[in-house]
Specification:
The complex is a heterodimer.
Chain A (H helix, E strand, L loop, with lengths): L6 H35 L4 H37 L15 H31 L6 H23 L8 H20 L21 H29 L4 H12 L13 H11 L5 H20 L4 H15 L4 H16 L4 H7 L11 H4 L5 H36 L4 H9 L4 H24 L1 H6 L1 H22 L1 H6 L1 H4 L4 H7 L1 H35 L5 H25 L7 H11 L3 H14 L2
Helix pairs in contact in A: 1-3, 1-18, 2-4, 2-5, 3-4, 3-6, 4-6, 5-9, 5-10, 8-14, 9-10, 9-14, 10-14, 11-16, 14-15, 14-16, 14-25, 16-23, 22-24, 22-25, 23-24
Chain B lengths: L4 E10 L2 E11 L4 E5 L6 H9 L6 E6 L8 H5 L2 E5 L10 H11 L5 H10 L13 H13 L5 E5 L7 H16 L4 E5 L3 H7 L2 E6 L2 E7 H6 L1 E12 L8 E16 L2 H10 L2 E8 L2 H9 L7
Parallel strand pairs in B: 3-7, 3-8, 5-6, 6-7
Antiparallel strand pairs in B: 1-2, 1-4, 8-9, 10-11, 10-12
Helix pairs in contact in B: 5-6
Classes of the chains: A mainly alpha, B alpha/beta.
C-alpha cells in the first residue's frame, strides 16, 4: 500500500514554486505597504489626514479589486500566450491527492494575500480610524484564486477552455466598474451599503460579498471536479495526441492554401505579429467583458443605485449635449488600463530572449530586420487589435440603449431619449470619441512594453517605495484644495460635489495642470535622451525620426482640434486639451522601445 | 582576402564569470570549422557573438567585414542558424514558417525548401507544436538552409537527437560544403561528426581557445603512446610535450604532441620504452586537452 505523502511535505512542494514565481509581487506589495505606512505617520494637517483616510478607503476598495483581478487575468493570458500552464508540469506528477492538489495552492495564495492585507489594515486603516469591511478583500481573493485555479485546470483538461480565464476579468471588472460609478454617483462612502439585509446575509454583508463568496465556493468545487481529468491529460506524453493527429494528417493531407508572398522583412514581421491568435483576444475580452457588465448590471440594478445609473446613462448621455465625453473616455480608459498593459498583445511583444528573460525571442532576434522595424511591426499589430476592439466597442455602445429598454422599469425615460434626435455636433463628438477609444487602447498596449524590456523589477520596486511618499507630498501641496474637497468626506458624490463647487474644480484643475506641466517637462528630458541614444546607435534614420515626430504632432493636433471644436465652449481650453493629449499620446515610450529592443537583441 | 568570420581578442564576462577570455578565431570563405569543448566552455557564447546577439566587453567581431551589432541586417541576411535550443514558434505551421522566412531572405529557394520538406518527411500543414523533437530540428534545418546562406552557424545541432536526424543534419552540412564558397561554423559534442566534415577544429576551454588547427595537421601531430617503465610509478610520468597521461603501475598511455622521433627521444629521457604508438583520434585529443594530467618534465 502506498503511504500518503505528509501534508507538510506537500505544502512545501507547492509553496516553493509558488513563492519563486510570485516573490516579486510580494516584495513590491511589501514596498507599497512600507510606503503607505510612512505616508500615514508623516506630519499633516487634520484636514489632510481626514482626506487621506477617504483616499485610503478608496484605495482599499479599488486597488484590491484591481490588483487581485490582474493576477488571474495575467495568468490566463500567460497560459493562452505560451501554450503552457503557469505551473511546471512536474507538479501534476506529485504523489498528492486531488484534494491537496487543488486546496494547497489556494490556501497558500489566500494566506499570502490575507497576511499582506492584514498588515495593511494594521498599518493604515487602524491608525486612520476609518471603517472598511476587512473580510471583503479576503473573500475577493478567495474568489479570484479559486476562479484562477478552476480556469487553469479546465484549460489543462481542454485547451479550448482557456478563454474561461476571461471570466475572472468579467467578475473583477464588474466590481471595479461598480465601485467607480458608485464613487461618481453615490458618493465616497462605498461601505454605506453594508449591513443591509441581503440574501445570505448571515455570512455575507453585501451583494459583493455574496457574489464573490458564491464564485469562490463554486470555482473551488469545479476545480475539485476537474482536477482528476486535468492531471490525467497533463500526464500524457507531450506528443501522443499530436502524433495521432500527424498520422491522420499523413493519411489524408489537408491542401495547403498558398498565400501571397511576403515581399519584405517588415511585411513578414508584421504578418508574424498579426498571425498570432492573440490579436483577437483583446477585442473579444473587451467586448465580452462589456456585455457581461451589461448583464450583471441588469441583474443588480434593482438593488444598486449605481448600477441603475450605469445602465441608463448609456442612452441618456449619448444623446445629451456633452456627457458622452466623460462616460466614453472613462470606459475607454478603463478598458485600456485593464486590457492594455496586460494584454496578449503586450504579452506577445515581450516574448523570451535567448537568456530566457523577457525580451526579444532568439527566433526573431536573428532575422535580418532592424530593431526599429521590429517595433514598427508590433505597433501595427497593436493598432490592428485596437481598431477591432474599438469597432466592437462601438457596436456595444450602439446596443446599450436596447439592453436598457429590455430591462423595464424606466422604459419611458429611455424611449424619450431614443426619440429625441441627436444633433450633428453630438454625432461628430461621438465619432471623435469612438476614434479616440482604439487610440487609447493602442497607447496602453504599446506604451509600457519598454519597461518590461528595460528590466521592470527595479522600476516597480522603486515606484512601490517612492509612490506613496510622493502622494503625501502632492497631498501637502494640495492641502488648501483638500480643505474645500471636504464634501467628499461627507459622502457626497464626485459628480454632485464638483458641479456644486465650480471654484474647487477650477483650483483642482489648476493644481493638476502644474503637475501635468512638470510631467511634460520630465517627458521632454527623457525624449531628448532617447533621441540621442537612437542617433548614436544609428537605430533610426534622421528623416524617419522627423517623420515619427511629424505623425505624432499631426495626431495630437487633430485630437486637440477635434475635441476643441466639438466640445461645448468653455468646457476645456485648448492648452488643457493639449496637455492631456501630450501626456497620453506616446512618443518617447515608443522611441524607448526601439532602444530597449536593440539592447535586448545585442546584449 | 577578408575572412568571413574575424574574431580578435574578444573577452566577455557575465558577472564575475569570464565566458570568453581573449579569444581570437578567423575563418576563411569555403571552410568548415568545428568548435569543440565541454559544456559551459564558451562555444554558444562565441557563436552568439558571431550572430551579434552578444556584444564583446573587449575585442572585435567582424562577419563579412561588418560588425554584427552595429550592422545586423546585412550580416544576418547571409547567416543560416540552427541551435540545440528549440527556438521555432510552436504556433506556426511548416508552410507558414516558409512564408515568413521568404519575406526576409530574397535568396529563398522555394523549390529547394519543398525538396527538403519532402526529404525530411515533414507535413507542410503540420504545426511545429505537434512535431517531435527530431522533426522540429529538421524543420529548423530546412528554414536555415533554404535561402542558401553564405555562412551556416550550427550550435550543437545534433544534441539529443536520434541517429537518423543526426544523419540528415550531417548530410545537410556536406551538401552545403559541396556548394562552392559556402562556409560552416558548427559546435558539437559528437567528435565523429566533426572528424567527418570539418577542415579545421577549434577547441575552447574555460573561455579560451586551446587550439585551432587544420584537422589533418592536428591528427598528424598528436600520438597515442603506450609507455612501459622498468619500475612501477605511483603518479603519472611527467613527460615532455605530453598532454595527458592515464594508467597505473608500469604501463601508461600518453597523448603526445609531436612526431614519432620526438616521442622516442622524450621517452628515452625518462627511461621508458614505447610499447605501442599510433595517431591519436580526435576523441582522444579532445579528452586529453580537456583533462590534462601530464606536462613538461
Amino acid at each position: 500500500m502506498t503511504r500518503a505523502v505528509p501534508f507538510r511535505m506537500t505544502f512545501h512542494a507547492f509553496l516553493w514554486p509558488l513563492w519563486e514565481r510570485n516573490k516579486l509581487g510580494y516584495k513590491i506589495a511589501a514596498c507599497v505597504l512600507f510606503g503607505l505606512t510612512i505616508a500615514v505617520y508623516l506630519p499633516m494637517s487634520d484636514v489632510t489626514r481626514q482626506f487621506l483616510s477617504s483616499v485610503y478607503s478608496l484605495i482599499c476598495v479599488f486597488l484590491t479589486f484591481t490588483v487581485v483581478g490582474f493576477v488571474p487575468y495575467g495568468m490566463g493570458i500567460q497560459a493562452a500566450a505560451q501554450t503552457s500552464s503557469t505551473y511546471a508540469k512536474v507538479i501534476f506528477t506529485l504523489p498528492v491527492s486531488n484534494e491537496d492538489f487543488v486546496f494547497i495552492p489556494i490556501l497558500i495564495a489566500i494566506g499570502g494575500f490575507t497576511f499582506l492585507w492584514l498588515l495593511f489594515v494594521a498599518a493604515s486603516i487602524v491608525p486612520l480610524h476609518f471603517y472598511f469591511p476587512v473580510e471583503l478583500p479576503i473573500i475577493q481573493a478567495a474568489a479570484m484564486v479559486g476562479l484562477t485555479q478552476c480556469c487553469w485546470l479546465l484549460s489543462v483538461w481542454k485547451r479550448s477552455l482557456v478563454a474561461l480565464s476571461m471570466l475572472s476579468v468579467t467578475v473583477v471588472g464588474f466590481l471595479q466598474f461598480e465601485v467607480m460609478f458608485g464613487l461618481l454617483f453615490e458618493g465616497t462612502a462605498p461601505v454605506a451599503r453594508y449591513g443591509t439585509a441581503i440574501p445570505g446575509g448571515l455570512f455575507f454583508r453585501s451583494d459583493e460579498e455574496l457574489v464573490l463568496g458564491v464564485v469562490a465556493i463554486l470555482s473551488i468545487l469545479m476545480a475539485m471536479a476537474v482536477a482528476p481529468y486535468a492531471r490525467h491529460q497533463a500526464s500524457l506524453s507531450r506528443w501522443k495526441l499530436p502524433q495521432r493527429r500527424r498520422i491522420l494528417a499523413t493519411s489524408n493531407p489537408a491542401p495547403v492554401v498558398l498565400k501571397p508572398k511576403l515581399g519584405s522583412a517588415l511585411s513578414a514581421q508584421t504578418w508574424f505579429e498579426g498571425s498570432r491568435r492573440f490579436i483577437l483576444l483583446v477585442p473579444s475580452a473587451t467586448v465580452g467583458t462589456a456585455f457581461a457588465f451589461l448583464g450583471l448590471a441588469s441583474l443588480l440594478e434593482s438593488r444598486e443605485a449605481s448600477m441603475a445609473s450605469l445602465h441608463y446613462m448609456g442612452p441618456s448621455y449619448l444623446l445629451s449635449p456633452w456627457m458622452p465625453l466623460p462616460l466614453l473616455l472613462l470606459a475607454g480608459l478603463y478598458f485600456a488600463v485593464l486590457f492594455g498593459p496586460t494584454s496578449p498583445t503586450a504579452a506577445s511583444m515581450k516574448g523570451r530572449n535567448h537568456f530566457k528573460e523577457p525580451g526579444i525571442n532568439a527566433f526573431v532576434a536573428i532575422r535580418p530586420i532592424s530593431s526599429a522595424q521590429l517595433v514598427t511591426a508590433r505597433l501595427f499589430m497593436a493598432a490592428k487589435s485596437s481598431v477591432i476592439a474599438g469597432v466592437a466597442l462601438a457596436v456595444f455602445f450602439a446596443l446599450w440603449p436596447i439592453g436598457a429598454v429590455g430591462t423595464g422599469g424606466n422604459n419611458a425615460t429611455v424611449l424619450s431619449h431614443l426619440v429625441s434626435l441627436p444633433t450633428i455636433q453630438n454625432l461628430l463628438l461621438a465619432a471623435v470619441i469612438l476614434i479616440s477609444l482604439p487610440l487609447l487602447l493602442w497607447c496602453f498596449q504599446v506604451g509600457n512594453v519598454f519597461m518590461d524590456l528595460f528590466g521592470v523589477k527595479g522600476w516597480l520596486i522603486g515606484i512601490g517605495c517612492a509612490g506613496p511618499p510622493l502622494i503625501y507630498l502632492v497631498l501637502q501641496f494640495m492641502d488648501g484644495t483638500l480643505y474645500k474637497l471636504d464634501f467628499l468626506r461627507k459622502g457626497a458624490s464626485v459628480n454632485t460635489g464638483l458641479l456644486e463647487h465650480p471654484d474647487v474644480l477650477a483650483k483642482l484643475i489648476g493644481e493638476l495642470t502644474i503637475a501635468g506641466v512638470v510631467l511634460i517637462g520630465i517627458k521632454a528630458v527623457l525624449l531628448v535622451i532617447s533621441v540621442i541614444r537612437i542617433r548614436r546607435r544609428k537605430l533610426v534614420e534622421d528623416r524617419n525620426l522627423i517623420a515619427y515626430g511629424g505623425i505624432w504632432i499631426a495626431t495630437a493636433t487633430a485630437l486637440v482640434g477635434g475635441f476643441y471644436a466639438l466640445l461645448p465652449p468653455g468646457m476645456l481650453s485648448a492648452p488643457y486639451l493639449a496637455l492631456i493629449v501630450a501626456l497620453v499620446l506616446p512618443l518617447n515610450r515608443i522611441l524607448m522601445q526601439i532602444v530597449t529592443v536593440d539592447s535586448n537583441r545585442h546584449r | 582576402m577578408t575572412p568571413i568570420v574575424d574574431i580578435q581578442n574578444v573577452t566577455r564576462s557575465f558577472g564575475s564569470k569570464k565566458a570568453l577570455d581573449n579569444v581570437t578565431l578567423t575563418q576563411e570563405k569555403g571552410t568548415v570549422v568545428g568548435l569543440v569543448g565541454e559544456n559551459g566552455s564558451g562555444k554558444t557564447t562565441l557563436i552568439k557573438h558571431v550572430l551579434g546577439l552578444l556584444k564583446p566587453d573587449a575585442g572585435t567581431v567582424n562577419v563579412f567585414g561588418m560588425n554584427p551589432v552595429t550592422d545586423p541586417v546585412p550580416v544576418l541576411a547571409q547567416i543560416g542558424y540552427l541551435s540545440e535550443e528549440d527556438i521555432l514558434p510552436a504556433w506556426m505551421k511548416i508552410h507558414e514558417l516558409q512564408r515568413y522566412m521568404q519575406g526576409f531572405y530574397p535568396t529563398w529557394d522555394q523549390e529547394y525548401a519543398d525538396q527538403l520538406v519532402q526529404e525530411f518527411g515533414l507535413d507542410r500543414t503540420a504545426k511545429l507544436l505537434t512535431l517531435s523533437k527530431g522533426q522540429r530540428a529538421r524543420a529548423g534545418l530546412m528554414a536555415a538552409l533554404a535561402y542558401k546562406p553564405a555562412l551556416l552557424l550550427l550550435d550543437e545541432p545534433s544534441s539529443g537527437l536520434d541517429p537518423i536526424v543526426r544523419r540528415d543534419i550531417l548530410g545537410a552540412i556536406v551538401r552545403t560544403i559541396a556548394d562552392e564558397g559556402r562556409t560552416v561554423l558548427f559546435s558539437s559534442h559528437l567528435l565523429g561528426e566533426v572528424d567527418r566534415v570539418a577542415d579545421r577544429v577549434a577547441m575552447i576551454k574555460n573561455g579560451k581557445i586551446v587550439f585551432c588547427e587544420n584537422l589533418d595537421d592536428l591528427k598528424e601531430t598528436h600520438l597515442e603512446l603506450t609507455l612501459v617503465f622498468a619500475n612501477s610509478r605511483p603518479v603519472p610520468p611527467r613527460f615532455d610535450r605530453a598532454i595527458a597521461a592515464e594508467g597505473s603501475g608500469k604501463e601508461w598511455s600518453i597523448v603526445f604532441k609531436g612526431t614519432t622521433d620526438e616521442a622516442i627521444a622524450a621517452a628515452q629521457a625518462i627511461d621508458a620504452t614505447i610499447a605501442e604508438h599510433r595517431w591519436a583520434s580526435l576523441d582522444e585529443i579532445f579528452v586529453a586537452y580537456s583533462r590534462p594530467t601530464g606536462g613538461s618534465e
